[in-house]
UniProtKB/TrEMBL annotation:
InterPro entries: Acyl_CoA_acyltransferase, Gcn5-rel_NAT, GNAT_YJDJ
Domain N-acetyltransferase: 6-94
Protein name from the UniProt record: N-acetyltransferase domain-containing protein
Signal peptide start and end residues: none
């Protein structure tokens, strides 16, 4: 099975799973009545490291936020670093907040 990412809204996190189970998650907080998604923490289980799952999780989570028309605040260093390496996602961060996140 190809890794699957889903928004587990009840837990306020995007989760990535494989055939072997839950591989990791990206926690978020909704702000401004859901118009802004603040990513606060990302974890990939050590058993799944080195498989590119963190990047797949980040891309899917950010794509889902983009589809909602929401903005992103990348407090999580992993999400912030991923956005920095993929400039096509910088536009999700409000322009006036980009300097704060060094984007």
């Amino acid at each position: 099975m190809e890794p699957q990412v889903r928004d587990h809204a009840e837990e306020s996190r995007f989760e990535i799973s494989t055939d072997a189970g839950l591989a990791g998650f990206a926690e978020y907080q909704l702000r401004d009545e859901g118009r802004t998604v603040a990513f606060v923490h990302t974890v990939i289980d050590p058993a799944f490291e080195g498989q590119g799952l963190g990047g797949k999780l980040a891309r899917a989570a950010l794509d889902a936020v983009r589809e909602r028309g929401a903005a992103v605040l990348p407090y999580c260093p992993f999400i912030r670093g991923w956005i920095a390496k993929h400039p096509e996602y910088v536009a999700l961060v409000p322009e006036e907040k980009r300097a704060k996140f060094e984007l």
